[in-house]
Design goal:
With 497 residues, the protein is α/β, with parallel strands linked by helices. The chain has 16 helices and 23 strands. The strands form six sheets. A seven-stranded mixed β-sheet has the order 15-16-17-14-13-19-20, sandwiched between helices. Strands 10-9-8-11-12-22 form a six-stranded mixed β-sheet, with helices on both faces. The structure holds nicotinamide-adenine-dinucleotide (NAD).
Length: 497
């Protein structure tokens, strides 16, 4: 059985732990490999190596760091087919979608190539007579990233390229369900000329995460995953005096106004609800049908959901692949059962799909519920599968109240042709990322990504300008040369003179 190991200090690292976890090909249901699960001692070795590497890396001029990152970008482009196939084989999503997610990660690498410009400080001449003041941003030290299964390339790439560009060293703890992509990216970064110890991948579960949270030498933690774990990370990172950004789960609403281009809204919803089998934190899992649009919306959606081409991600004609594991498949099916019991109307039932040659794969077809109500579990909780719930409301205000009352606040969209409605929605909605006639409003690399409410714990969002701020600390220097005005001792607060 193929064993996936850690990558520490520029090479494969076996570690001392004997614990492993199984990796499956979700399309066939077969186990393909296993991954080492790091012990605390293994994590401590990685931290020590990252600490040693920090001394030289943080001193390198940003332009030299940028050159290594630029080479890394070229290597990702050159190897994109191989990386995409790794994503498909361990996550299950369809090839083009996997490739798109890699490219969204690559865009953050491109952004990080501009680090000399991004790290330019601020300077004021003569803040007082003959006194100058300037501010610079310096790296934090060792940063760690803990990432979810659903974007094995993109989410880690939201973090480590910017952190490393800023002069930090980095330890990535990817999801134990699909870790191979992270290890491959680390190999490519080394090939690009990154010094050993600057980027390390430690595989593992709670034990490795806790070791990162409690290690005094780790300065900052970036986390993406479910809300309960995000909260745990936020609390424990803060308790251990670390900087932290922790992105959690979601329940994203797409508001469909009666005046919208309905075909555009339906197509948008199809991709946003069923793309990547709904395993996206920005998936639109609730369609809010406003006024009289409900019947027409459900009618158009149901026809398309029934025709969804479900199949292995490696088959280029598939529109939707399997779920990541058997346990996750059972969980999603369980939610569909609950929805029926709660009294929602199951318009399309994808639970009994059978694919010839892939009978053991973790497949479920698209599911569509109508008449979902606010108090139902299938409305309140994140299902993270291809299950779209339609909630009917009487008017725009009720739609806004519904979205704002939900505990999650990651993304939302509205379909309308009324500019006034679109603007009011963007202004009043309590959500971090908003789309107007855009189904999945994921910010591009040079803006920042993050939700509100219980979808995000922390202050600075990920990548873009907030990413640079998160991975650096501010230092402000005030200086006067001895040739300037000489003064007697002053015992009062200095003011601008
Ligand atoms: P998860 O929370 O189970 O795992 C995320 C990471 O935390 C993994 O690396 C895992 O090993 C680790 N982990 C799991 N249990 C832990 C524990 N008890 N203690 C310490 N560490 C633990 O999430 P997942 O199932 O891998 O991913 C799906 C979730 O991630 C969904 O809720 C989805 O919405 C969310 N997500 C959010 C965003 C966002 O940007 N907000 C993006 C992608 C995914």
């Amino acid at each position: 059985m193929n064993l996936i190991q850690h990558f520490v200090n520029g090479k494969v690292f076996k570690g001392s732990s004997k614990r492993t976890s199984k990796i499956f090909n979700p399309a066939t249901g077969e186990q393909t490999s296993e991954v080492n699960l790091a012990s605390k001692d293994d994590v401590d070795v990685a931290v020590q190596k990252a600490k040693e590497a920090f001394i030289d890396w943080s001193n390198k001029p940003p332009v030299q760091r940028a050159r290594v990152i630029f080479k890394f970008k070229e290597l990702i482009e050159k190897n994109s087919d191989e990386i995409t196939k790794i994503i498909v084989s361990e996550h299950g999503k369809v090839y083009e979608d996997a490739k798109g997610s890699l490219i969204r990660g690559l865009e953050v690498v491109e952004f990080a190539c501009g680090i000399p410009n991004l790290l330019k400080g601020e300077f004021t001449e003569n803040v007082g007579t003959d006194v100058d003041s300037w501010s610079v941003r310096q790296p934090l030290g060792i940063c760690a990233g803990i990432t979810p299964f659903n974007f094995p390339a993109m989410v880690p790439m939201w973090m480590f390229p910017i952190s490393i560009a800023c002069g930090n060293t980095f330890i990535l703890k990817p999801s134990e369900k699909d870790p191979s992509c992270s290890v491959r990216l680390a190999q490519l970064f080394k090939e690009a000329g990154l010094p050993d110890g600057v980027f390390n991948v430690v595989n593992g579960d709670k034990e490795a995460v806790d070791a990162l949270l409690t290690n005094k030498d780790v300065a900052a933690i970036s986390f993406v995953g479910s809300t309960p774990i995000a909260k745990y990370i936020y609390e424990n990172a803060a308790k251990n005096e670390k900087r932290v950004q922790a992105l959690g789960g979601a329940k994203n609403h797409c508001v469909v106004m009666p005046d919208c281009d309905l075909d555009q809204a339906v197509n948008g919803l199809m991709g946003a609800a069923y793309g990547s089998a709904g395993e996206r934190c920005m998936a639109q899992s609730v369609a809010v049908a406003v006024g009289k649009v409900g019947d027409q919306l459900v009618n158009k959606l149901s026809k398309k959901v029934e025709l969804l081409r479900v199949g292995p991600g490696s088959d280029k004609s598939s529109e939707m692949g399997p779920l990541v594991t058997k346990e996750h498949l059972e969980k999603v099916k369980g939610y569909v059962d609950i929805g029926i019991k709660e009294g929602a109307k199951l318009v399309v039932d994808g639970r009994n799909i059978k694919l010839q040659g892939f009978e053991k794969g973790f497949f479920i077809g698209g599911c569509l519920f109508d008449y979902v109500k606010k108090n139902m579990k299938i409305y309140k909780e994140e299902i993270f599968g291809p299950v779209l719930s339609v909630v009917r409301v009487k008017d725009f205000k009720s739609a806004v109240d519904l979205v704002n009352d939900h505990e999650f606040g990651n993304g939302t969209s509205i379909y309308t042709r009324d500019g006034d409605i679109g603007r009011t929605f963007a202004n009043k909605i309590k959500i971090g990322m908003v789309g107007i006639n855009i189904p999945i409003p994921v910010p591009v690399a040079f803006h920042s990504f993050g939700g509100w409410k219980r979808s995000f714990f922390g202050d600075q969002h990920m990548h873009g300008p907030e990413g640079v701020r998160f991975y650096t600390k501010l230092k402000t220097i005030t200086s006067r040369w001895p040739s300037g005005i000489r003064s007697d001792p002053e015992f009062v607060m200095p003011t601008m003179k």
